[in-house]
Write a structure and sequence with these properties.
This protein is about 35% helix and about 25% strand. It is an alpha+beta fold. It folds into 2 domains: about 60 residues, lambda repressor-like DNA-binding domains (434 Repressor (Amino-terminal Domain)), CATH 1.10.260.40; about 55 residues, SH3 type barrels, CATH 2.30.30.100. A 5-stranded antiparallel sheet has the order 4-3-2-1-5, with no helix packed on it. Strand 1 and strand 2 form a beta hairpin. Helix 1 crosses helix 3 and helix 2 packs across helix 3. The protein starts with a helix and ends with a strand.
Length: about 130
């Protein structure tokens, strides 16, 4: 099932309208419609807000539709890619992976061109911003 279909199903299961969802997460109804039809994908922060609203996990929303790294041995494929890094605490950083190994990654942040060294132990997901 595609992300848009999962978003629509979750909303309908909760008995919510697109208008209500849009108001709750501060977007337009057309934006919610575009997400559900698969024309565009929500940002990671909006996905997180949707997961909270629908009382489900972020992983359940994105499973099968985005590239998500859960294995430390598979992270090297992300070097040079723009990503959102979600910590288990819910904090999200956006940037480009410049270096990585089994235990850490260096992320050049989108804002301010700051380099940040990240220990992979506290990471819940690394999600590609560029698709497959």
């Amino acid at each position: 099932m595609k992300l848009g279909d999962r978003l629509a199903n979750c909303r309908k299961e909760k008995g919510l309208t697109q208008e209500y969802v849009a108001q709750e997460i501060e977007v337009t109804r057309q934006t919610v419609s575009n997400w559900e039809t698969g024309h565009v994908a929500p940002s990671l922060d909006k996905l997180h807000a949707l997961a909270l609203l629908y009382q489900t996990s972020l992983y359940d929303l994105i499973e099968g539709d985005t590239q998500t790294v859960r294995s430390q041995s598979a992270v090297s494929q992300w070097i040079g890619k723009q990503v959102d890094v979600e910590y288990l605490s819910g904090v999200v950083l956006s940037g480009t992976v410049t270096d990585m190994d089994q235990q850490w990654t260096v992320l050049q942040l989108d804002k301010g061109n700051e380099l940040k060294v990240i220990n992979l132990e506290g990471i819940g997901a690394i999600v590609s911003k560029g698709g497959r």
